[in-house]
Design brief:
605 residues, 21 helices
């Protein structure tokens, strides 16, 4: 039964998941969560969002933590409050569709390890991609929350959202969530949408709205007035900007009204004070692009995507061009049929936009994920895609019209055999399933005792005070005549009797330089010591990245346009193609190598 007639507003706090995903690139460690869990548990929240989204990836990729152990630890530390996760339907927590048996086992293990509420969504709002996950949640006896990904486009209307909500309830949804991942809702649009949904379905309506545009708190109040009784908020220390409205502020707003949450502001303040201190540790992950910016109404870039895209552009030494990327995102989104920008489509669109900007030519390089998307690998786009982009990316390849997972054979047996004795349990197999290369590396490192979490970067405004540490770059951003340049300095050698050598990389500089004293400069070898491309037979890459696979060997015959390498940049894979046909004379890279634009990676003659 819809609970719009009940006055009390219930809050779900997202500080342990979406709050830090949106503001510090999902870097909060479990050790900083556990000390406050007892106080969080005692507040009386409707639920706490603790898992899913990008947290699984970040645990394995950066923090070198077992995400399953994190869940178990949080469940033990929070025994009385329902725990909630964000699940990407058939994508689960990875970046592709998984076979149905993997989806079923993942949901079962997540439920057994502590998840009570599964917020299930699909990036394209293609409900076929939610069927198996929703059924698995219901089978586990847990709460299945069907989700509408809210976006604005010529093809997204209130009527389409109402129809989607009805279909989700028919699929067994226990509640409906409006997921406004980019902060696009305006107060009056929220009121109209919530009123329509409340009138259409007999289950509770939840609102999840990011504060990016500065409108989310106002939208939440209008949602409550229209009949919504469940809101997502975030403890103030991780609220605002690309995160969510402040929990404490919303509690105060509803005090002594018919909607009073009944939560204790003093207890909430103590939790906020704790997280304020925690956030200081992660200051190096802060970005100006996670602040409030009404420009999101133009770019439609979600909060988590903003912070992660800023970090990825920084890794490419191109942070100064991020505004160009933001401008390109709406164009790419239109080309791809107006997908809502939420994982994985936000990464697919965002990375392609970045490649278009960095390459200086639109679609010069097209990621494998864009090609898979255009072939129907993620489901049905909301609107027709641009025919020219489709032809350039996939040519005459057949486009799959059915449910993508119907093309996938059961995977669990194969995955279990592939990972072998590196997996101690089914959870390890599922970690490997989400990220095969990264998962195997993590599990091997765990066995070998070699796992080391990434170092905490110092905040940008403190970089001038940081000592130059051997092997660890000190980064600066320098403004010269209106142009911004990134500088990285790495020191080698210290102590009496040795002169310090400083390796300096300047964004835009054609090569790294080394200097030992004033006016003494020596050119340093570039990565791998590779020569610079100078002929059509020299295969190079347009973006810095890592080699994922080498598709040719010396002596192979290749044709013009044939893929010879696969690289990974910004979490997306791309093919590197031969510009001429001929015979492979030399291969200068191997899987795992770091490469930069202009280097000769393969020679064809």
């Amino acid at each position: 039964m819809n609970d719009a007639n009940l006055a009390t507003v219930k809050l779900s706090d997202v500080v342990l998941r979406d709050g830090h995903q949106s503001l510090i690139a999902t870097r909060m460690r479990t050790e900083d969560m556990l000390p406050i869990c007892g106080q969080l548990d005692a507040i009386g929240f409707h639920s706490l969002e603790v898992w899913g989204g990008a947290t699984f990836d970040a645990c394995v990729r950066f923090l070198k933590e077992d995400p399953w152990e994190r869940l178990v630890s949080l469940r033990e530390a929070i025994p009385d409050t329902p725990l909630q996760m964000l699940l990407r339907g058939q994508n689960l927590l990875g970046y592709r569709h998984y076979a149905d048996d993997v989806v079923e086992r993942f949901v079962a293990r997540a439920a057994d390890n502590g998840i009570d509420i599964f917020r299930v969504f699909d990036a394209l709002n293609d409900l076929r991609n939610l069927e198996v996950a929703m059924q698995a949640v219901k089978k586990s006896g847990k709460h299945a929350q069907g989700t509408i990904c809210y976006t604005v486009s010529p093809v997204h209307t209130r009527e389409t959202y109402v129809d989607q909500a009805r279909r989700l309830v028919e699929m067994g949804a226990d509640s409906i969530a409006i997921k406004d991942m980019a902060g696009l809702l305006t107060p009056y649009a929220t009121s109209e949408l919530v009123e329509a949904l409340v009138g259409a379905v007999e289950v509770p309506i939840h609102l999840h709205a990011h504060a990016t545009s500065g409108l989310a708190a106002m939208s939440q109040i209008k949602a409550v007035e229209a009949g919504c009784r469940h809101l997502d908020t975030c403890i103030s220390a991780f609220a605002g900007g690309t995160s969510h409205p402040s929990t404490e502020a919303m509690v105060a707003a509803f005090q002594e009204t018919p909607y009073d949450t009944g939560l204790d502001l003093i207890a909430l303040k103590e939790v906020g004070d704790y997280f304020r201190e925690v956030r200081k540790k992660y200051a190096g992950f802060e970005s100006e692009y996670t602040r409030e910016d009404v420009g999101v109404q133009i770019w439609q870039v979600p909060g988590g995507m903003m912070s992660n895209l800023a970090n990825q552009m920084k890794e490419q030494n191109a942070l100064g061009r991020i505004r160009d990327v933001f401008d390109e995102i709406p164009r790419v989104r239109a080309d791809l049929g107006y997908p809502p920008l939420v994982t994985p489509t936000s990464q697919i669109v965002g990375t392609q936009a970045a490649m278009n900007v960095l390459a200086g030519e639109r679609y010069k390089t097209i990621t494998n994920e864009v090609k898979r998307y255009l072939m129907g690998g993620y489901g049905q786009p909301p609107a027709p895609v641009d025919a020219r982009v489709r032809d350039q990316a996939i040519g005459k390849a057949e486009v799959e019209e059915g449910r993508p997972a119907d093309q996938l054979k059961p995977e669990m047996s194969r995955l279990t055999a592939d990972i072998g004795d590196l997996a101690d349990n089914e959870e390890d197999v599922l970690t490997f399933a989400m990220f095969p290369d990264l998962g195997r590396e993590y599990l091997q490192g765990r066995r070998d005792g070699t796992l080391v979490p990434e170092a905490m970067p110092a905040p940008a405004d403190a970089s001038a005070e940081r000592p130059v540490t051997e092997g660890v770059p000190t980064e600066f951003v320098i403004d010269v005549h209106g142009e911004s340049y990134e500088v990285q300095i790495t020191g080698v050698g210290s102590g009496s009797g040795s002169r310090r050598r400083l390796y300096l990389t300047l964004d835009g500089m054609p090569e790294e330089v080394v200097f030992e004293a004033k006016d003494e400069f020596v050119a340093a070898e570039k990565s791998g010591g590779r020569a610079q491309a100078s002929s059509p037979g020299h295969v190079t890459t347009s973006m810095p990245g890592n080699i994922v696979d080498v598709l040719v060997a010396v002596g192979d015959s290749v044709t013009e346009g044939q893929a010879v390498l696969i690289t990974e940049a910004m979490k997306m894979e791309s093919e590197v193609q031969a510009r001429v046909g001929g015979t492979v004379k030399a291969v200068h890279v191997a899987k795992g190598d770091r490469v930069t634009p202009g280097e000769v990676l393969v020679e064809i003659e």
